Amino acid sequence: MIRKIIDDIEKNGNFSFEKIIENNSLSDDDFFELLKFIHLKNIPEIRTSLDNNDFIVLENENYYVEEKDIIKSYLEDIKEKYSEYNETENKKNSENKKKEENGELIDKYLKVAVRESLLYSKFGFSFLDTVQEATLGVISGINYYDRIKEISEDTDFFIKNFAVKYILEFQKNLLKDIKASELSYILYLKVKADKEAGCNMEEISRQMNVTPEYIKDLEKLFDGVELEELIGNEQILERADKITQMYILENIPKKLSYIDEKILVMSYGLDDKVYNEKEIAKTLNISLHNVNILKEKAINKLSIDLLKNEFARNAEEMEYMIN
């Protein structure tokens, strides 16, 4: 299996982790060998996820207030943890540094798990669950730390991508348990987003690997119809079931836009350092006034979980609209 993947990458000259994980089940050992090949050959990655287009806007931004508060508190803890970690590291004499133990490495790379969870956060998946899976990926990557050091000083590349592997496997496995009604709704949202982006019906159907007639069925099903009315529509639900297996990960929109991701990564020090609002505004070319507003909106988006059981049960209580 690994040989075929490598052959395909060499033929194409690039790769997509999303497509690799979607189409294969790789052990950690196989994945490490794949990363070695990609790193040593310097093969470029192609991200295939659909960027967020703000096609979901919560009219009541406090709907997921409990989840939002937990996420915000967690990110603040990460920022504080790494501020302290960096201060400790700066005080150490590099010549007297002891060999890093696994526990120290986990602390060091935890922010990598959080950062990659932000970048791969998608509608339908809890952000905090995604962080948990990414952390397991980091721990698995650290098991190869000594072997990584033998071939490269760029340990971050390997640890980061183990986090990505575990995130994508988590999303792939969770998709198997999605109810047809929920999957149909996500497909519908993607159609709306693609149309807003200027795609025509032929482009959308080709990208999603479904017929134009099916897309029309989705629109007919969801446009102006209450969610409770859809539960008993066996014809549409059965058709949604049939395409579940060919429904690929990149068709589920990301929760965050590029600006959302950058603001959170910079605000909470998930890359090189913690940036203040003035630095963020200057770097991203946005007004200082908007930095905190956009940060709050980004955390709101992270808290959205469209596949929660109560979404279908209490749909009348959820206030949302499609842009």
Offer a few descriptive terms.
globular; mainly alpha; 323 residues
3D structure, described in words:
The protein has 323 residues and is mostly helical. The protein is built from 16 helices and 2 strands. It has helices at 2-12, 17-23, 28-41, 65-91, 102-119, 127-142, 145-151, 155-175, 180-196, 201-208, 212-222, 234-243, 258-267, 277-284, 288-303, 309-313, and strands at residues 56-58, 320-322. Helix 5 packs across helix 6 (127-142). It is globular, with a radius of gyration of 21 Å. The model is unreliable at 54-61, 93-99 and 307-323 (pLDDT under 50).
Topology order in helix (H) and strand (E) letters: HHHEHHHHHHHHHHHHHE
**What is the overall number of helices?**
16
Question: What order do the strands of the largest sheet run in, or round the barrel if closed?
Answer: 1-2
- Spatial separation of the terminal alpha carbons: 43 Å
Report the portion of residues in β strands. under 5%
Radius of gyration: 21 Å
Number of DSSP strands? 2
Which spans of ≥5 residues are poorly predicted at pLDDT below 50? 54-61, 93-99, 307-323
Structural class: mainly alpha
Query: Kindly state the mean pLDDT as a whole number?
Result: 76
**What characteristic shape results from the CA principal axes?**
globular
Profile the largest sheet: 2 strands, antiparallel
* Portion in helices: 55-70%
